[in-house]
């Protein structure tokens, strides 16, 4: 109810004004001549026209404004100068409707020049108060509402942009995850093919030679021993080839670490907690030892956030600087009053200090873990 009154406040003010001016005209007219039924009907029709004008759409409002103005002229003709204030009101209503410059609001002052019983000073005061009321509503408040509307539209556009950006980030995250998984599958397939090509023939040849040795072992022991040594040498060479292949085909620690972090974010997103990973700088300079610390501490921090913080968002940032690396894991949960060094927190501290780095915890707005490591 209060909101309805606030939104239609100026309408209520105008209805009170038209009622007050009508009562003023009736009382002033009745002092000398009395009030006829026709005058009261005209007043009721004018008030009705003003009220209905506010209920219909803007397309039909000019019709009721014209009707109200015509009723005023009839009243002015019948009742005389007693109803001149209703003319001032109608003039302001017309100016307000056609949305012209504020200078037009000075036009009703000309009505004060019409000779009659109403004191000119009173007329000027009433017209000034009405002008202030209409100018405030039509120019100042209308300008404020327009600004609020523009800001609301801009805010909605910003929200749409943020939602679109969020969808793009999630899509990019999913794309990167799929690319990493596909790359690992390709590496596995390449490794399988390489092992088959390099090692398969070696093993098959060794098996054939061992079968031959079994046949001639009793008949020709010397030849058997020679062939057996050849098999041993061949298998030893095969083992060396396997080690070389694994060294070459082993996935980079960076790629595996990023894949695990992407999978961690995807797992949190699937559980209803929006989790983002962002990186900045050259990741190739990060050593395997640092990647292990980042992975272990990220998993520990995210697990704690999912268990205890009641958060809606988790943000993981990895920034590579000149000689340092900064990694932060922050959530927007309830935080905590004090930090208790349990096994999880202690383990995070130990891993960072082992590499000569620093780790800090912030609990004021959610929970935030900040690590600073030397490259």
Verbal overview:
Helices cover about 70% and strands about 10% of the residues. The chain is rod-shaped. Strand 2 and strand 3 (about 325-330) form a beta hairpin. Strands 1-2-3-5-4 form a five-stranded mixed sheet. The chain has ten helices and five strands. It is of the alpha+beta class and about 375 residues long. The mean pLDDT is about 80. Helix 3 packs antiparallel against helix 4, helix 6 packs antiparallel against helix 7 and helix 8 packs parallel to helix 9. The chain has helices spanning about 1-5, 10-30, 35-55, 60-80, 85-100, 120-215, 220-250, 255-270, 290-310, 345-355, and strands at about 275-280, 315-320, 325-330, 360, 365-375.
Draw up the topology in text.
Layout: H1 2-7, H2 9-32, H3 37-55, H4 61-79, H5 84-98, H6 120-216, H7 221-249, H8 253-270, E1 274-280, H9 288-309, E2 313-320, E3 324-331, H10 343-354, E4 358-362, E5 367-374
Parallel strand pairs: 1-2
Antiparallel strand pairs: 2-3, 3-5, 4-5
Summary keywords:
375 residues, alpha+beta, five-stranded mixed β-sheet, 10 helices, 5 strands, 70% helix, rod-shaped
């Amino acid at each position: 109810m209060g909101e309805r009154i606030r939104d239609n406040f100026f309408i209520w003010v105008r209805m009170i004004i038209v009622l007050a001016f009508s009562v003023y005209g009736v009382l002033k007219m009745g002092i000398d001549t009395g009030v006829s039924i026709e005058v009261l009907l005209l007043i009721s029709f004018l008030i009705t026209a003003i009220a209905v004008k506010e209920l219909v759409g803007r397309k039909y409002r000019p019709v009721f404004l014209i009707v109200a103005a015509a009723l005023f002229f009839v009243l002015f003709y019948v009742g005389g100068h007693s109803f001149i204030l209703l003319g001032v009101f109608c003039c302001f209503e017309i100016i307000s409707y056609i949305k012209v410059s504020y200078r037009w609001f000075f036009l009703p002052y000309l009505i004060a020049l019409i000779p009659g019983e109403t004191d000119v000073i009173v007329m000027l005061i009433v017209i000034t108060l009405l002008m202030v009321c209409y100018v405030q509503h039509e120019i100042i408040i209308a300008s404020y509402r327009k600004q609020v509307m523009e800001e609301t539209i801009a805010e909605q556009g910003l929200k749409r942009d943020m939602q679109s950006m969020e969808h793009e980030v999630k899509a990019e995250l999913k794309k990167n995850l799929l690319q990493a998984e596909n790359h690992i599958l390709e590496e596995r397939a390449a490794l399988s093919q390489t092992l088959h090509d390099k090692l398969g023939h070696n093993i098959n040849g060794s098996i054939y030679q061992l079968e031959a040795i079994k046949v001639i072992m009793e008949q020709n022991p010397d030849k058997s021993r020679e062939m057996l040594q050849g098999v041993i040498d061949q298998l030893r060479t095969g083992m060396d080839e396997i080690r070389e292949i694994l060294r070459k085909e082993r996935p980079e620690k960076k790629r595996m670490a990023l894949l695990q972090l992407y999978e961690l974010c995807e797992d949190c997103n699937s559980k209803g907690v929006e989790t983002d990973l962002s990186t900045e700088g050259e990741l190739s300079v990060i050593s395997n030892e640092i990647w292990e610390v980042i992975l272990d501490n990220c998993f520990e921090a995210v697990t704690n956030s999912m268990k205890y913080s009641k958060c809606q968002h988790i943000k993981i940032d990895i920034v590579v600087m000149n000689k340092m690396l900064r990694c932060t894991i922050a959530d927007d949960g309830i935080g905590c009053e004090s930090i208790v060094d349990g096994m999880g927190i202690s383990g995070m501290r130990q891993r960072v200090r082992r590499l000569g780095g620093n780790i800090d915890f912030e609990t004021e707005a959610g929970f935030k873990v900040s690590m600073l490591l030397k490259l």
